[in-house]
Amino acid sequence: MARYIALPVATPEYDRENEQVTRRSLEQSLQDANSNIEGNRDKTNKLSSLALRRFQFLLMGAGNG
pLDDT at position 6, please? Predict the structure, then answer.
């Protein structure tokens, strides 16, 4: 199961608005990466699913030769 850790708060010298945008962008990027990893692990991603089927098909043919 995925776990989410909040990023630490920036020091007061940073622009608060810029810091919030950067923080949200980083959090969204990490969540997107996690979704891609989970999709590949669960084989719900179309490309990984097709690649796995191709690999299984090639393995079936290799045993008969």
Answer: 78
Does the pLDDT of residue 12 top 80, yes or no?
Answer: no
pTM summary value:
0.43
Helix, strand, or coil here: 12? coil
Q: How far apart are CA 44 and CA 30, in angstroms?
A: 19
Is residue 57 packed enough to be buried (19+ CB in 10 Å), middle (13-18) or exposed (0-12)?
A: exposed
Closest by Cα among 28, 26, 52 to 39:
52
Task: Transcribe 1-65 into DSSP letters.
Answer: -----PPPPPPTTS-HHHHHHHHHHHHHHHHHHHHHHHHHHTT-SHHHHHHHHHHHHHHHHHTT-
